[in-house]
């Protein structure tokens, strides 16, 4: 069952499957030659998924999302005799999806690719929307492109083996969708927090569907990230520096960043003070250790943020639940608000 199909102008369309066994991708590739890119953790956890298949196994971890790994993958693709009729499947979390999308985009000027997304973060975010890439030196996601995968299969059963911290990290992005898009979804998360933490399958599938629909709709409207897509960055401007400084998983840093960005929204008079308490109440249900102290080091990192152009920054304020507002803002005003 296709849960969502999104089509970008002048680009291929993507079918997203939820509540589907991960092996479903085999029905989608037809007679095409298949090469799977995965990481060592998944390769060992799910041997049956890779049995008798051409596999390229890379080391897990963000530090391996590099051009060096891209080179290694391309060497392996050539050794396997891949050509433009090969379907390249990324089987993994956001790291694997990012590097697979990038490789597929450049290999012989473009090969078909799809994903089996295996982390919550990948299922609700990284696998959707076509952004891909690798880190370069100390810069995160500095080299990459935007190309849509042919399909994404999201099997919630795969999340059972996910370390708890990675699951919670995915919830950070889920929470973000509720903040930027939908009061009723926000209330749903609030009311079902225990079931969500316990991975109740029905509730999890509902959440996956909801998040995929929210992200796909935004991507359809602004695939190249020139306007509306910025709202997906809510929580990320501050969250990114928290992620690096505290060395914590991406989604957890985003959740902390959401609170800090709401505080900035209040200080710059875009939102009422009560929004801080509302946000903290929801986030604390999933991430008890959500508090964060923004120090000068965080600010220094912010200054280097690649999304800043000149002194102005496209900052996503939250005026209320479900009501983000993108405002080109003087960077110094953000800094003053953080420090005040
Ligand atoms: N392209 C985008 O739009 C986008 C959006 C958000 C994040 N990202 C990227 O996604 C990456 C983070 O993704 P992530 O949080 O999925 O981390 P990840 O891909 O690094 O996976 C986290 C860990 O979980 C393991 N793992 C994956 N699936 C598992 C499973 N089912 N069971 C057990 N272990 C499993 C992995 O081996 C890894 O060790 C970052 O590189 C980030 O830049 C991209």
Explained architecture:
By secondary structure, the chain is of the alpha/beta class. It has 2 domains: 2-162, Rossmann fold, CATH 3.40.50; 167-193 and 221-339, Dehydroquinate synthase-like - alpha domain (Dehydroquinate synthase-like, alpha domain, Up-down Bundle). The chain contains 15 helices and 11 strands. It has helices spanning 25-29, 40-45, 47-50, 67-79, 94-106, 120-126, 164-181, 183-191, 193-197, 201-221, 236-246, 250-267, 274-286, 296-303, 331-339; strands spanning 2-7, 13-18, 33-39, 54-58, 86-92, 112-117, 134-136, 139-143, 151-154, 312-320, 323-330. The protein has a 7-stranded mixed β-sheet with strand order 1-2-9-6-5-3-4. Strand 1 and strand 2 (13-18) form a beta hairpin. It is globular and about 60 Å long. It starts with a strand and ends with a helix. The structure holds nicotinamide-adenine-dinucleotide. Nicotinamide-adenine-dinucleotide binds at residues 39, 41-42, 45, 60, 62, 65, 92-96, 98, 118-119, 121-122, 125-126, 129, 131-132, 141, 158, 161-162, 166, 169, 250.
Summarize the model shown.
The protein is α/β, with parallel strands linked by helices and 340 residues long. It is 47% helix and 19% strand. It has a seven-stranded mixed β-sheet. A two-stranded antiparallel sheet has the order 7-8.
């Amino acid at each position: 069952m296709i849960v969502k199909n999104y089509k970008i102008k002048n680009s291929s369309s993507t079918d997203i499957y939820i509540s589907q066994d991960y092996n479903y991708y085999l029905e989608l590739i037809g007679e095409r030659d298949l090469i799977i890119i995965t990481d060592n953790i998944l390769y060992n956890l799910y041997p049956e998924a890779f049995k008798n298949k051409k596999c390229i196994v890379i080391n897990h971890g963000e530090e391996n999302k590099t051009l060096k790994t891209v080179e290694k993958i391309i060497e392996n693709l050539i050794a396997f005799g891949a050509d433009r009729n090969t379907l390249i499947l990324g089987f993994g979390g956001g790291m694997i999806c990012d590097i697979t999308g990038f490789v597929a985009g450049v290999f012989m000027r473009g090969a078909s690719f799809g994903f089996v997304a295996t982390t919550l973060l990948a299922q609700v975010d990284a696998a959707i929307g076509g952004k891909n890439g690798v880190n370069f030196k100390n810069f995160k996601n500095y080299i990459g492109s935007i190309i849509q995968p042919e399909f994404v299969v999201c099997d919630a059963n795969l999340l059972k083996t996910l370390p708890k911290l990675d699951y919670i990290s995915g919830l950070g992005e889920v929470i973000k969708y509720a903040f930027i898009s939908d009061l009723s979804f926000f209330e749903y998360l609030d009311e079902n927090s225990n079931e969500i933490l316990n991975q109740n399958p029905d509730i999890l599938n509902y959440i996956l569907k909801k998040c995929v629909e929210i992200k796909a709709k935004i991507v359809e409207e602004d695939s190249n990230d020139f306007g509306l897509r910025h709202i997906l960055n809510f929580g990320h401007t501050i969250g990114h520096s928290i992620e690096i400084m505290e060395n914590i998983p991406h989604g957890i840093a985003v959740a902390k960043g959401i609170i800090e960005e709401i505080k900035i929204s209040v200080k710059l008079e875009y939102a009422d003070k009560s929004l801080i308490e509302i946000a903290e109440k929801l986030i604390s249900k999933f991430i008890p250790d959500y508090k964060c102290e923004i120090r000068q080091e965080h600010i220094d990192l912010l200054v280097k943020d690649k999304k800043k152009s000149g002194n102005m920054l496209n900052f996503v304020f939250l005026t209320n639940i479900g009501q983000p507002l993108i405002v080109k803002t003087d960077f110094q005003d953000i800094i003053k608000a953080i420090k005040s």
